[in-house]
């Protein structure tokens, strides 16, 4: 009897260990991460190119695994978009921005935070009441929250337009992100009440190189000016690029030349120091 009992016990323990170590699918892991709220936000300063003043930041999500490692968003955002988990992640990012920066944003009205919206958020507008609710009782002004949307959100142009219109009625600025990387016609831009356009890093990379695409960048800048949009240049890494952008009247920039994405506490310190006269 004893050997049989020992065998059974060993078998059960073995099963339990096997079950607990069994690798979950990537989707299963992401579902657990959403349930356990394993996300954090880093903030990358956006500066006024002429002065170097910090005018705000872009909120960039990271998945903090239980072992402490950070997973880059491009490794899980596509799966989150495909599976619909992205809306829950967007909501967590909104809550984190409010939690991390409430005091800074109330103390300094000139600071804004840009939040990335998914295509679903743009096509359904479901995110707008979520933001409204998150800002209640905080003292943060809706004007301090900018919303970044990529062209993928504009496939259904009519619902996208109503989201943009509603967002601006609420006081948010709407920024078209990764501008120039989509393949859709740009004519839809004319019918949208946008505030700013973010030039994708791939175009900034071509500045002061002899690459064939370098001639596109001035056209993008020209188009933004025709549409009377503010411009934010993304991925500015060199002083030569910053100089070029200032020469071409691009107001704002973001990139490693100024600062990398950083935790909230560091961003708050960066902002104070970058603003000091
Ligand atoms: P994005 O919106 O185009 O964000 C800019 C990306 O460029 C960030 O990568 C940023 O760290 C990186 N970057 C900025 N300046 C430089 C530079 O000078 N050099 C280089 N090499 N890179 C620079 P990150 O944080 O890995 O984010 C990647 C993408 O993930 C974002 O691209 C965005 O599409 C997506 N993402 C990030 N956070 C969120 C979020 O909360 N929601 C959604 N839906 N998407 C997000
Ligand atoms: Ca963005
Ligand atoms: Ca971008
Ligand atoms: Ca980009």
Query: H/E series, N to C?
Result: HHEEEHHEHHEHEEHHEHEH
Number of helices: 11
Distance between the termini: 83 Å
Shape: elongated
Q: Determine the fraction of residues in helical runs and give it as a percent range.
A: 40-55%
Number of strands: 9
Enzyme class: hydrolase
GO molecular function: cyclic-guanylate-specific phosphodiesterase activity
Protein name: cyclic-guanylate-specific phosphodiesterase
Domain EAL: 23-275
Quick recap of the structure?
This is cyclic-guanylate-specific phosphodiesterase. The protein has helices at residues 2-21, 26-35, 77-83, 86-107, 119-124, 127-135, 157-170, 201-204, 216-226, 239-247, 264-275, and strands spanning 39-48, 54-64, 70-71, 112-116, 145-150, 173-179, 196-199, 230-234, 252-254. With 277 residues, the protein is an alpha/beta fold.
Walk me through this protein's architecture.
The protein is an alpha/beta fold and 277 residues long. The protein has helices at residues 2-21, 26-35, 77-83, 86-107, 119-124, 127-135, 157-170, 201-204, 216-226, 239-247, 264-275, and strands at residues 39-48, 54-64, 70-71, 112-116, 145-150, 173-179, 196-199, 230-234, 252-254. The protein has an eight-stranded mixed beta barrel with strand order 1-2-4-5-6-7-8-9, surrounded by four helices. A hairpin with a 5-residue loop joins strand 1 and strand 2. The longest helix is centred in the middle third of the chain and has 22 residues, at 86-107. The model has no long low-confidence stretch (mean pLDDT 92). Bound molecules: ligand C2E and calcium ion (3 copies). One calcium ion is lined by residues 178, 200-201, 234.
